[in-house]
Please model this.
Amino acid sequence: MEGTITSFWVLLLILILSSGFLHLETFKFGLCSDTYNVSCIAGERNALLNLKQGLTDPSGRLSSWTGENCCSWAGVRCRDQSGHVTKLKLRNSYSSSPDVDGTEYALGGEIHPSLLHLKYLRYLDLSMNNFGGIAIPNFIGSLKTLRYLNLSGASFGGNIPPHLGNLTHLHYLDLSVSFGSSIESELHWLPGLSSLKYLNLGGVDLGKTANYWLETVNMLPSLVELHLPACGLSTLPLSLPLVNLSSLFVIDLSNNGFNSSIPPWLFNISQLVYLDLRYNNLRGRIPDGFASLNLLQHLHLSENSFIQGKLSRKNLGSLCNLRVLDLSFNQISGDLAEFTDSLSKCKNCSLESLHLGYNELGGFLPGSLGNLRNLKRLSLMKNPFVGSIPESIGNLSSLQEFSLSENGMKGTIPASLGQLSSLVYLDIKNNQWEGVLTQAHFSNLTSLKELSIVQTYRNITLIFNVSSDWIPPFKLRYLDLKSCQVGPEFPPWLRNQNELNYVSVWNARISGTIPEWFWKLDLVLDRLDFSYNQLTGTVPNTIKFNPSGVVFLNYNYFTGPLPVLSSNLSSFHLDNNLFSGAIPQDIGQKMPNLADFDISYNSLSGSIPLSIRKLNFLLTFVISNNHLTGKIPDVWNDIPDVYVIDMSNNSLSGQIPNSLASLRALKFLKLSMNNLSGELSPALQNCTIMETLDLGENKFSGNVPAWIGEKMPSVLVLSLRSNLFTGYIPTQLCDLSSLHILDLAENNLSGPVPNCIGNLSGMNSIITSMRYEGQLWLVAKGRDMFYDQTLYLVNSIDLASNNLSGDMPEGLTILSRLGTLNLSMNHLTGKIPAGIGSLQWLETLDLSRNQLSGTIPPSMASITALNHLNLSHNHLSGPIPTTNQFQTFIDPSIYEDNVGLCGLPLPTKCSTDDESSSHLPGEGKTKNGEAKGNQKLGFYISLALGFIVGFWGVCGTLVIKNSWRHAYFKFFDDVKERVLLFVSLKLASRRGR
Model:
């Protein structure tokens, strides 16, 4: 009989769990009536009024607490007939409402000890209020009739009073804290709660209990739910001698920083239905012990990072009752075939949510995935799967979310995908799908709201081929298509998509104008992106955007005036088009919320509007490569958070305004290729986190400021080329330890190249991750080269076309990863440093038009990366090296006007002495030549001897000795006769047939 009762309760709890998470707040306390037709006890009414008096109630939630009958007051329930207060539910139900500010409805103040007069109180809920960090009152431990106590999220602080251990009848205890609260506790009081079924101490600091918490919890034999997430437990014991938790259905130990394998004792809790161990540092393989948890429905092991091994029949593949499995962000490997094949054999596989994203799973997706017919969510993103999506995916008629993004798959998308009528979210981006998508691929996707197909590469391998009159069965809210051919004409099937708020059709080979009907859809957008197409025409001002909206219409052929769009926009990218005319003078007033503004590479003219001072949220301001004139507005004090300014390649004039120096967040300042003049204001040294400073090709004058090296320690790129700077190169620039591009060419600088230039350790750095440093023109490999995304990989020093003098500093030779060194057109003297061969990454070396002397150092021949060299117009002498890269430098102009140089490719031959001096001591070209001559002589002698021995040794013998000659020819005559006889017999036998 006892076993039957136990089985009944187990089945009942499983039924409850199957409809959602248990939360024992669903327990009904039978003595708490919902009727109002009883009168409360006067003493208890006074106790409630005293409680009210101690509370703060900004929204008047307790305004009904007046009159005689306290049983009718909000949140108060009484026992039938007797009128004793049994339930006090003062939870702030507005705390999670998206429509109101829940804090305005929170009770606060103090909890009056008059609660002790409620002798029959069984239910107390003060959750989600704000008690401002006061301690949980000790007297609550004296409310011995309590069955239910919920103080969660109510901003209590301090320690949990051990007096709570006196509540021996308590079934439900929730003291979990919300973000920002701080409660600590020991757990020695916990075993006193012998009747406890639900325990939630989530967020409570239990760090002091790390060594005994499990032993303590194990003393609660009636416990059904255990919630200890984010408690700082740190230790998850691997053994538990006697498991006393046979009633446990729910375990939540997430976010505790456990650093061990999954303990075997968990598999002795055979009734377990819900297990959450995510956000820890668990390691090791998935144990086979999971197979014993036949009732398990929810398993969360995500974001442990170190869980490894394969999914198989022996561990999770036999859990037919499993509804939710989340193993994301781990190191699970292998393929899925065995796991899904095993689950397919379940009589009724319950799996509804499978999240295996961000692992190391690989191989082809198995066809047995299509047998998991109850799946609603399938997340397989960020794994190295290969091949195509299996045809069987069309069997998952309940599937609502399907994510297969960032796998690098290169197969096809099956038409059976179009049968998923429940599918709401389809994300297969960052793969390289192939083939053609037809109407069949979308034929029954009636529930689809979000579609993302973003190809990994820009080359087109996926083509949309639908008829011009096709009407999709779905109404999308989110559309993201990139590097898929949708064109050549603007897709007419968008005509009925009037619920869109995110539209991105990028690099889709669409040409022509955007039809008028699209603008009349009256969409309110979060994002509009038709970039990298061939669209023409004008852009209307009527497009509507939600707050923080984004528009990308760049890399097209739009014409006309620059449109002024919605005031809700935060990002405005209309660069690389054909817009003309002036920037609207009121653009700052009309779009005041802009954070990113890029109108570069157009044909805009006129001045920069003063209204940009209204762009208080501006972060990036890019107006380069236009025809703008006038001065830079002195308005930057009003927009202090800008970190990118690019006004390069215009016709701006005047000086840099002082207000620009107020931008303490400025990292990228590009003003090159303008007509700016004057000295650089010392105020710019306030921009202390500058990373790219490009002021080249202007008319700036004065000395190169020393404060660049003193006050801008983070500078990566410094370009002051083609200006009117004079004076010495300040040695303070050598302190820029991150600098990897230094361009001071084409100025009037004088004095020596600082020997401390070897301190530029940024020229030695190995870059392990991509970083953006802007765009820059550099002279490299003898020509102007434009760098964009790869600028961070370039290491360059260009001091050409100045009046520098003195020797080349030895410090240059320790810049091991320097790629370009240009010191041409100066007045440098002395020798090329002997250690220059240590610059193994050097690709460009231009020392032309100086007064350098001496020989070309032999070590230069070891710079195997070198592909551009110019040593012309110096006073160099001696032989030109002939090994390695020097064999490719066959243009005589590389060495011209160095009267002392000799050897190829110059017509001047080197003398014997010169030749021998250019090689290793003791041996020279002469000896090498002699050795080569001896080798040739030996070859011809061997050839003659071989001919004599091989030919005359045989033929000579036959000529001289008659008996050998007759025997030799008789042998060949016999062989001939036998062959002829064999052939004749064969022919005769065939005729006989």
Q: What stands out?
A: The chain has ten helices and 61 strands. The CA atoms of residues 861 and 883 lie 6 Å apart. The mean pLDDT is 88.
